[in-house]
């Protein structure tokens, strides 16, 4: 084999190998299918998970707000009962007046218990003890008893305190999750831009390398030809 043929074959083999290696890294279709797809899936999964958590917290807030609305109604009825009890202690009332007051108290008492048993959110009663992702929501309420108003009122206040604390905590977590989703979405978008730039840079480097190899091959072949001419006495 002649020297120039050997050099040409050697350069061609190495050029093919380098080109093959670059294609494995820089082929946009492979990058997008493998690296980008994996990273984008991670981002997408994080975003979807966070959005689902936000939805769960919103549902939980809707749940406790429904309970809170019912407790407000119960509180109004309870205040009316307490006012009527004071009215009933008026010595000037005759039996008919007293009977009318007691009738109103009984209706309000019935209304309170109906509110406790019939207030639901998505077909679930809102009064009880619930575990929401490790956070206990306690809206437990006893059946109303006219003879035990003070204990009932304590339970009502406790339930409202639980609701207020949970609502604040849930809203804070929603805000944090919303910010995380926003930042992750930006990172996902930036990742696509970065990968496109990487692919472009690799392809440009490939073109530069190929140009250098071709120039080198041309130089070697020219030098080899000159040497052969000298050896042949040309």
Structural commentary:
The mean pLDDT is 78. It is built from four helices and four strands. It is mostly helical and 234 residues long. It has helices spanning 3-26, 28-88, 95-118, 149-231; strands at residues 120-121, 124-125, 129-132, 135-138. Helices cover 82% and strands 5% of the residues. Helix 2 (28-88) packs antiparallel against helix 3 (95-118) and helix 2 packs antiparallel against helix 4 (149-231). It starts with a helix and ends with a helix. The relative contact order is 0.14. The longest helix has 83 residues, at 149-231. It has a single domain, classed as f41 fragment of flagellin, N-terminal domain.
The coarse silhouette is: rod-shaped
> Which CATH class?
Mainly Alpha
Instruction: Please state how the strands of the largest beta sheet are arranged side by side.
Output: 1-2
Low-pLDDT parts are none
Oligomer description: single chain
**Structural class, judged by helices and strands?**
mainly alpha
Portion in beta strands: 5-15%
The secondary-structure element order is HHHEEEEH
Number of strands: 4
* Rounded Rg: 40 Å
Q: Please indicate the count of domains.
A: 1
CATH topology: f41 fragment of flagellin, N-terminal domain
What is the terminal separation in angstroms?
20 Å
| Largest β sheet strand count, sense and barrel closure | 2 strands, antiparallel
Mean pLDDT: 78
CATH superfamily, called what?
A: f41 fragment of flagellin, N-terminal domain
Helical fraction equals: over 70%
Number of helices: 4
Annotated CATH architecture: Up-down Bundle
